[in-house]
Amino acid sequence: MYYYLHGLVTFHTKDEIIIECAGVGYDVLVPHVDEFPIGENLFVFVSYIHSENDEYFVGFKTIEELKMYNALTSVKGIGPKTALNALSSTSVGRLSQAIDNAEEVFLMRLPGIGKKNASQIILDLRGKLTLLDNSATTLNKEMDAAKEGLKNLGFKEKEIKDALLSINDNNLSADEYLKKALTYLQKK
Fold this sequence. Notes:
The protein is of the alpha+beta class. The protein contains eight helices and five strands. A five-stranded mixed barrel has the order 1-2-3-5-4. The model is unreliable at 132-139 (pLDDT under 50).
């Protein structure tokens, strides 16, 4: 029904933004409010939720986040707000990695997800998640440059992928991605 809203971010609270589109302000719940600066004209990818007692938009900065949200809400026992809270606590890349590696303990650390839900998420989504483009590690040129730097330092492809997927920040410089990845790899 709705795919995105395009407009000016005029206000936000702890977990929602108001985006003005053609003179109408839409209230949108988002996982990471700080990714939607006030005064910016942005695209917000949305899912429209409606039930007997409630209706609202859930919005995301990237299509990958929207796809992950839709995948999570397709799992029996995972509602819209539980899926949103899970995405608020981690990155899409790290969540995808946890599902593909059957990391039940990691999933249980996410808000609202217990042992039964974690098992169901793994059962339903393992091996079925596909992100746009090639992978979460090719988000931008800066991350690609950091990836090349890690290869030149002798790290293996899987180590590099895991390290880059662990980074929750977007729009960093290649040096910043490299430093965060090296910090992650040193802890391993």
